[in-house]
Amino acid sequence: MKFFLLFSILFLSTLFAANPSIYAALGDKLYDNAFKVKNLKQLSEYKPFEQKIDDYLDELEEAKKLGFAIEKGERPDAAKAYLEKLRKLAKTNDFFLRSANAVFEKGLQKGDVYLVMMMLDLGIVDAQRYKRQLLDFYNRHKGSFTPEGVYLELLRQEAKKNAKMSDEEYAKLKRLKEQEKIKKLRKKDKERQEELQKRLEQELKMKKRQIEKEQLRQLRQEELSN
Predict the structure, then answer these.
(1) For residue 139, what are the CA distances in angstroms to 82, 132, 133, 135, 155?
(2) What's the predicted TM-score (pTM) here?
(3) In this predicted model, what pLDDT tens digit does every residue of 196-208 receive, in sequence order?
(4) Where are the domains positioned within the chain?
């Protein structure tokens, strides 16, 4: 499967080595998706569409040749026809990609590991678009298959993200604990200060009583001596 994917990319990168700049906003999407449409032929679900896929790719190749001819000035009168051709091809491209997404989603729902893995390996669907579903799919079928390629990379990114979140959560909890610790220390310090203040006041009161008592004793002695 990997060899086929590599061969398909090399073949189509040669066939569609560079894109015409004229109407590139529309043309680039079609030419860049060519390998995805071609790889649909590897799925049993698209056996009935093999001829339609081949016809589409042939038309796409002819359109690209026309685009280059217009750029070189060989077909200056064909710009409008080229745009109309691209718009027509865009409808077919959208049909194939929409149906591919539907097939992929059905595979996720049915738990079809082989189909899901094959479509990911062939680059037919965008793994990031189905990130949440793929993570859920992996958790539901963990142990029944070994993720590879873009699927494995997606899982690694998620694991890294979760680890980062855990670190952030840990740091947050650590900060809260430090704040709580500081709060408790301040509370204890305040209680110690209050206790010390209370003791000082008590000692002052005792000293004051002693002084008053001593003064009273001396006063009585003076009265007796008189």
Answers:
(1) 47, 11, 10, 6, 11
(2) 0.63
(3) 888 888 888 888 8
(4) 2-123
